[in-house]
Amino acid sequence: TESDKNARADETALAFLKNIDPEELALCYFRDELVTVSEGGTTVGEFTASIEKVTRSGEELILVHASSHGKVDDTPMGTTISTYLRPTGLQVVEQEHIEFVKVPGHELEKKTGIECDPETGDLTVKRIVTQGHEVRKSQHQFKADQVAGLVTEGTNLLLQRLFMRQGLSGEVCFITLDSDSGHLVKASYQPLPERSQKVGKKEIQVSGIERRVASVGDIPYTWQSFFMPDGHLTMRVQIGSPAIVTLEKVPRLIERDIPEPKPVFDKKRLMWEEDMEMNSRFLQRKEELKAGHEQYLRGHPDATALIADFFQFLLLRRPDDVVGFAAEFFSSFSPKNTPGKSFKARLV
């Protein structure tokens, strides 16, 4: 098995991460709710996965949160994942992954934490495995160039939604962390043929993706997942597991909104004089304004006298600068004007 320095993502995988469509990414922010069903058809657990945009320390990130809890062969087990990703390239900022199996007397818990150095891009992976009273700790560090194309368990949930929206035409190889050793191993994805799936009383068409993850000390792990066209998970099967994760109710399909083109109207000259109704309104409004002006002047005879005086002085002096002359004339009536000879006295 290729691991650590030898495990590398292929060019197709790196190109996919580099060219993620931001609009399609925005349509992946939703929640999946499914149930875990045993071979006999009994519901033995539940699976939820939510992806949302969040702001953390002033930076816009993607939060992936998933949990799976239930019983397999009457043994309680579960997984919880919380992953923070950068929208550009789905770079991992931080992840916490907890797995547990509660076999009486042989309880097992695995905690894996991933942190990315914000300056160098290097990753630190810390693992704590608790089995009964035994606790084992380990730590791995990877340079930024080693983890190009890394897909963690949290990233995987978002990546598969994007494959459904942007398309997956053939096998593509990323890298991921081996669940047992913490080393880097290959993770390949390839499309599965379209098929029909019965959800409740509805029959829907779904598309599938097979994910195959190498292992350092065991045979590869393989999952087959099926989705609606918008990325809603409808079924997930781990090869060799007696239980499957399946959908109970068909969710509403999420589609990209296509704005309708704005109507374009040819500009036409407004011939209001020829429109009887508009011409009538114009004349009516004109008379209303005229009546209002006349009423105001009748109630303020000093305004008429002031204007008459101004025009009288203007015609007597005939200044070249009419605006300056008007400013000087009317400023004499300001209460802030310095006492002195009146404007009229200075003009005579």
From TrEMBL:
This is Ciliogenesis-associated TTC17-interacting protein. One of its GO terms (biological process) is cilium organization. Its main location: membrane. It is found in: Cell membrane; Cytoplasm, Cytoskeleton; Nucleus. Keywords: Cell membrane, Cilium biogenesis/degradation, Cytoplasm, Cytoskeleton, Membrane, Nucleus. Plays a role in primary ciliogenesis by modulating actin polymerization. InterPro entries: CATIP_N, DD_CATIP. Belongs to the CATIP family. It comes from the Eukaryota. PANTHER family: CILIOGENESIS-ASSOCIATED TTC17-INTERACTING PROTEIN (PTHR15505:SF3), RIIA DOMAIN-CONTAINING PROTEIN 1 (PTHR15505). GO terms for cellular component: cytoskeleton; nucleus; plasma membrane.
